[in-house]
Design goal:
CATH architecture of the largest domain in chain B: 3-Layer(aba) Sandwich
Oligomer: heterodimer
Domain Amidohydrolase-related (chain A): 142-403
GO molecular function (chain A): allantoinase activity; dihydroorotase activity; metal ion binding
Largest interface: A-B, 22 and 26 residues
Order of helices and strands of chain B: HHEHEHEHEHEHEEHEHHEHHH
Protein name (chain A): Dihydroorotase
CATH topology of chain A: TIM Barrel
Number of helices of chain B: 13
Helix content of chain A: 25-40%
Number of strands of chain A: 18
Radius of gyration of chain A: 20 Å
Structural class of chain B: alpha/beta
CATH class of the largest domain in chain B: Alpha Beta
Strand content of chain A: 15-25%
Number of domains of chain A: 1
Shape of chain B: globular
Number of domains of chain B: 2
InterPro entries (chain A): Amidohydro-rel, DHOase, DHOase/Allantoinase_Hydrolase, Metal-dep_hydrolase_composite, Metal_Hydrolase
Organism (chain A): Sphingomonas naasensis
Shape of chain A: globular
Distance between the termini of chain A: 18 Å
Distance between the termini of chain B: 31 Å
Chain lengths: 406, 329
Amino acid sequence: MKTLFTNARLVCPTGGVTTGDLLIDGETIAATGSFEAPSDAQAIDLAAKTLAPALIDLGVFAVDKAACRAGGIARVGLMPDQSPVLDDPGIVRRAALSGKPALWVHPLAAATRGLEGQDLGEMAINASAGARAVATGRGWIGASATMRKVLAYARDCGLVVVAHAEDGGLAGGAVATEGETATRHGLAAAPAIAEALAVARDLTLAEETGARLHFRQVTTAAAFDLIRAAKRRGVRVTCGITPAHLLLSDIAISDFRTYARLSPPLRDESDRQAALTAIKDGTIDVIASGHDPRGPEAKRLPFADAEPGMSGAETLLALALGLVRDGLIPIERLFALLAANPAKILGLDTGTLAPGKPADLVVLDPDAPWQITAETMVARAGNTPFDRLPVQGKVLALYKGGTAID
Amino acid sequence: MQASDHSPAAQLPGRAAFPHRHLTGIAGLQPHEIVFLLDESEQWIEANRTRAKSDKRLEGLTQINAFFENSTRTLLSFEIAGKRLGADVVNMHAAQSSVKKGETLIDTAVTLNAMRADVIVIRHMSSGAVELIAEKVDCPVLNAGDGWHEHPTQALLDALTIRRRRGNIAGQRVVICGDILHSRVARSNMLALTALAAEVRVVAPSTLMPAAIERMYVQPYTDFDAALEGADVVMMLRVQNERMAGGYIPSTREFHMRYGLTPERLARAKPDALVMHPGPMNRGVEIESSVADHPTRSAITEQVEMGVAVRMACLDVLTRAERGVEGWA
């Protein structure tokens, strides 16, 4: 079956922004720009709406099809922190099938067995079962010797290691970043340098072992400086961030708002500004939702007793489009952060509008206004720190492998 | 100075003087609202010193003291305060073992609410827990201490003690020494005393000093001797034994060497400087007995006395709306 989009504003991370048509043949993109339309194609006039690669959300904690559909996400990298943990080929295979047919789920296998930070996970077997990377999970691997083995062994298997960047020795027990807000609220806090310490160690180990390392979330100026310098030296490192850390500082936890309790915790304003700079200068490679829906039983608790995490899949695109509207980056660069780069990190041949790539596409109106409301979110839970925020950017349609997802 | 006739609160009618439903912390109170509560407390000091201490204004009201964390003196103080006002006081002593932390907190709040409590006094080990409960109940809630966050009635009784003993709060140099990091008493006192224009110095080793503390308009010191220069009030905090076993401080005796309030050290403060402690004291650790028991300079037992008066005032003021007091309903 062929589908022809006409009058589209094509946004491609590699091809830039152009106006033209796009042809899907079966499951792949057949042609873009100006070409002779085949007579047997079903034509859809997009009337200047934007057509871009569907989002690839690297590092979610739940398979939430409804939220992904609403957010224009066609693929997710699923964190190993599931029950049971993704450390066995049977479990990995089952997870990989769990989104079908609406969503591609790419499991990230546990770097260590049971995510316990001690024994190596079966990386090669889990990769053969469908894992696209290995991950340390929510936690940090405390033993440097173990992390070194994880990186060296993952390099042998050709797998990227997705790491959590918080020194557990400093951050253990903390629920906020040290600073005025945590002090005023009497909350256990860790210094922001807990992140730089973890990043410095893992960068050093990655450089020595030659492994590919992806920090799922980097949020502080000191850590960005380390990664910027490492990239310049040729270390194979990439990093990501969530919209929450780009748009909110730790003031958002005031009045003990547990929906703003995240891991890593929200940082102070100077770190937030450093994150925006790191988006602009290319230090940050990925923007991800960190989607982690949590119901009231995990959030309607005293701040320190509440679970960290936010429901972010359906707000990822709209919040990230703010970066374009603010003039920080052009829209094609945004889709590199949201699609092309995560694809590259996971070794997926997708994420652009180039002919031959899978037809994973999103049709959007980047200017359409709406308001985020926690109680009406389609996600499994509405734990968003952005409740009541007016945003712009609506997903009009989502295609996975050439098929429209309802 | 007795009731401050010139405070703005004195001119505000009824509820405008204290327009808050709950007392969850000092944060959020205007200076004149703090002064209003201090002024309201004065009447109960004299009343408590007479033989017939009872008043009937809270008769028929149910006061529940829900204490999720162990406490002896604060619980007793709130119980006496409620009973002297004629309330039916019920203590719910939910030890940490019986109420699994946090999980049933909202349910507990809903339960207390369904029992038609008229005022609830809460102590909890988690910062912010009292505000969480306050959102779920229909009656006024009083914070009797939540985690490391706030302990507002302690700050009010300390302010009242200082005002009565020093004549004023504004301009007083108050030195607070001890475990600032984990202390809700320190936080509430910093807020209340700076709001009332005292000069507040906080003293602790760096391991027990919260980050960005100067953003609370206090001056941090690690050198107790330097901080004591010219002090009008020296407020010592209790240091938990488990924090002196090496985790934050090398040892008890080392803490005493650097931060213990001895007569020699106290000599650096003003000759008539006041010595305070929220209790219970570790005698010989943060404070020496000769200082704690000093007949003229120690205000430690007076603090306990002020505690009952302040809590009576808070219970009275917070229940005025439901009692239909004119101007408050």
